[in-house]
Amino acid sequence: MTQKKVGDLIKEARTKAGLSQEKLAAMIDGLSASEVSKAERGDKELTQAELKAIAKATGVTQKSLLEAAGFVTSTAKKPAASTAKKPASTAAKKTTAAKTTEEIKLTAAEKRILTLYRAASAAVRKDAEAVLKGEKQVQEEGGNPLMEGLLGGALDVLANLGKK
C-alpha cells in the first residue's frame, strides 16, 4: 500500500484518539510533530518501531498500520473444504457483538437494571429472565429479597419501555 494510505490511517487513529500531532509526537521517542505531519501526508516513511508506537498511543492495532506500510502481509487464507462449515470465529463474533452494542442506546434506568443483573447470582438472573418473559410472578410477601431488589422498580421501567 502507499504511504498516503498509511498517513490516512495514522491521521484517522490520531484524531479518534483525540490527540494533536504535537501530543502524539510527544508520546513517541524521536518523532517530532513535523514528522508526524509529513507521515500523515505521505511524505515520510516511518519505521516499524515508530508505527508500533503510534498504534499503541492511538489504540489501533499494530497489524493494521504495519500491513498498510507493507511491513506485514495479510495472512488471511481461504478455509479448507474440511473447515468450511465450522462456526464463525470468536473474533468475528466479537465484531458483530461490538456493532450490536454500539447501536443500542441505554437509558439511565436500563443501565441500572443491567448493572444489577450483572451483579446478581445465576439463580437470580434466571428468575429475573422468567419474570421478564412473563413466565413467573414476583412474590410480594416472603419472596426473595435480592430478586425483589433487582426487580423492584425495574418492572415498571421495562413495562414503560414497551410503550415508547
SSE order and pairing:
Blueprint lengths: L2 H14 L4 H7 L5 H9 L6 H11 L3 H8 L20 H14 L4 H12 L2 H11 L12 H7 L2 H8 L3
Helix pairs in contact: 1-3, 1-4, 1-5, 2-3, 4-5
Task: Write structural notes for this entry.
This protein is mainly alpha-helical and 164 residues long. The chain folds into 2 domains: 3-69, lambda repressor-like DNA-binding domains (434 Repressor (Amino-terminal Domain)), CATH 1.10.260.40; 108-161, no CATH class. Helices cover 62% and strands 0% of the residues. The chain has 10 helices and no strands. The protein has helices at residues 3-16, 21-27, 33-41, 48-58, 62-69, 90-103, 108-119, 122-132, 145-151, 154-161. α1 (3-16) crosses α3 and α1 packs parallel to α4 (48-58). The protein is elongated, with a radius of gyration of 25 Å. The model is unreliable at 81-85 (pLDDT under 50).
Give a short synopsis of this structure.
With 164 residues, the chain is an all-alpha fold. It has 10 helices and no strands.
Features:
164 residues; mainly alpha; 434 Repressor (Amino-terminal Domain); 10 helices
Query: Judging from the principal axes of the Cα atoms, what is the shape?
Result: elongated
The rounded Rg comes to 25 Å
> Uncertain segments of ≥5 residues (pLDDT<50)?
81-85
Rounded average pLDDT? 74
The total domain count is: 2
First CA to last CA: what distance? 49 Å
**Helix share, percent:** 55-70%
Secondary-structure element pattern, one letter each: HHHHHHHHHH
